[in-house]
Amino acid sequence: MTALLVATAAAALLCLALLATVLIVRARIARLDSRTRHRRSEVSTILRTLLVDEGIAPAPRSPSTLHAVASVVTRVHGEDRESLQRWLDANGATALAKQGMRDRRAIERARAIRLYVRTTTEPSSILMVRMLDDPDPRVRGVAALEWGSTGSTEAIAPVLAAACRAERRLPPLVASIAIMRCRLLDVESLHAAWSTRDPDGLRVALSTGSAAGLAGVQSHAITALTHDDPLVRIAAADALRRVGTRRSLEPLRERLTLEANPIARRHVDEAILALGGGA
Amino acid sequence: MIPAELAAWLAASLVVVTIAFGIYFALYQLLYVTIVIRAIGAIADERRWASDELLSGTFASPLTPGVSVLVPAHNESAGSVACVESLLRLQYPQVQIIVVDDGSTDGTSEVLRAAFPMTPTDEEPISPVPVGGVIESIHRFDHHDALLIRKSSVGRRADAVNAALQFARHELVCMIDGDSILSPTALLRVVQPFIDDPTVVASGGIVRPANGAVLIEAEVDRVEVPSRLIERIQVLEYLRAFLVGRAGWSAIKGLLIISGAFGVFRRDTLVQLGGLDAESLAEDAELVVAAHRHHRTEREPYRIVFVADPVCWTEVPATWSAVSRQRKRWSQGLGELLRGARDMMLRPRYGALGMVTLPYFWLFEQWGAPLVIVAMVLAALSGALGLIPWIAIGLALVVSYFVAVATSLLAIAIELGATPDYRTGRSMRRLILTAFLEPILFYLPHALWRMIGLIRAIRSTPSEWGVQQRSGFVQRATTGQAA
Fold it and tell me: Is A25's Cβ below 8 Å from some Cβ in B?
């Protein structure tokens, strides 16, 4: 009986504690909301001073303010961007980011990458390649996307190489998003995919190269039509639909007669139609 | 009065039974707490890593896999138009919508044809998947990449899904119910795991009751915990099952169920498995088990994940009788599922699913209801025979009541921290009040329904589509006019 009484009291206390937890969580959320509002007003003041008044903005109250200002950098260009980057650098953002990139916690490394890329005008390739090799796949993804967001052509080859390698790979879609953000001007930037013939790498190269309108992708796409992986064949057909010429019609028709995968057949068919080979 | 010897024997037996129930109860709580802890970690992690930039990048990438959304509908005239409108507004680059009217008698096809211009077509199936019902007509939407297929019903949702699967042409397929509303970014979010990890074969999102939700142009604008008790109870259940339960099971790599109301699968995996099992009542769970079995047998790396962020709103039954029918069906489905998966139970080769999830569902979800009823009958008998003092029985009931309330309060706390949906004062008050009322009003009838479902599963009673009275969503035009 005593045990039951103790259990009843313990269960009732647990309920009360959880009820209190619900109320505490609610109060905490309200406090966080209010803190966010304060930070937003602090960031607004800094942005107004730097971008509108062109004066000297106050120092940040906390590192979170640096991250908040850094998130605005990607949305502005030219002098405004430089002005924000100068302020960030002057207030220790670069040093903080470099230190954060060595943090044990993956989320902190990811935040640090964002801060670093947004603070510097030209991120160091050595540093970014190292982050593309991070043990945590999410950190690698953030590194690729952030590097890509700078629009730098330099990022293309390392990002694609990271998608083609055997270990610590970058998911193909993340690589494609990153490359799409860069200035893809030359089909040779996608060399890693053509040389390794890695299926994921080829899909990335065919999709991004054709989406960028690079005519040089055509010959690689024709070769890829015979690849073992149906996803690569689909990407090749889509690439030819985008950048192919009538030269591609013959290999596409040949593929159509051999293709067993119904989805790939449909894509090949669509490419033939788009290139005017329907009749 | 009973003889002394018999009384002694009964007393000894009751001690043994009480200890057994105590161990059962403690084991259940221990496992549940473990799952909750893992769920909290997983949800917190997911929120920390959420990135809108990745979503916009995914939207813009030419490599983002297309998704065919399969919508089986049976007598869904009240909600099907809102459902299709929400799908047409999805923020996703390539979406093919396939609605299957599975022998509806309430004019579901006619309502859809009146709402969206479409023309008959003689579309050929792309993938060979066995379908029981006969396809009567196929219409292609004039202005969208969408099909409406009308077929005769064989009484199973799975058959309607398979009919749609035949025509799916994208790499991924998403299954939703004909009365569900997806939030605009839901598909982008639920597809993220496929992007992050090529070994992901299935991904499920969170499903929430939408009863009483206000829609503006097929998008949920405002949501409150409904006023009817039975609907509120289901809100709590969904919080416990989806937010806490599935996030926890996913975190230990033992996810058994991806809801048929909102799940994404690789099309090739589905076709390879021959589509959904049209004989099963728990076809969604059956599919997940089949995927586990297939990949484990083939020794292929794979992951089946749950994402606690993307939301699918669905209408839950609003009457006790409808809930009763639904729960009997669910329980029967679970019974059939576990019978089919008994060869995987306690087999290390099936990983966490075989060693933890399936035994847990067998022991606590399937047999939990009958055991609760047996325990209550035994307690009442013992009290009546004077073997256990009534006060002790009462205290034991109070303990289990408080533990049940605590479980719900924990789910509410996690929900508050994870999403902004039910943060208004009124919603909070309603949820907390329901947490205290539910064990008193719902647990016993629920246990009885589950037991009936289990008996039906044991007797292999045939069953069909669940009949549910739909009231549809509250649509509000942008001008503020209620429709």
Answer: yes
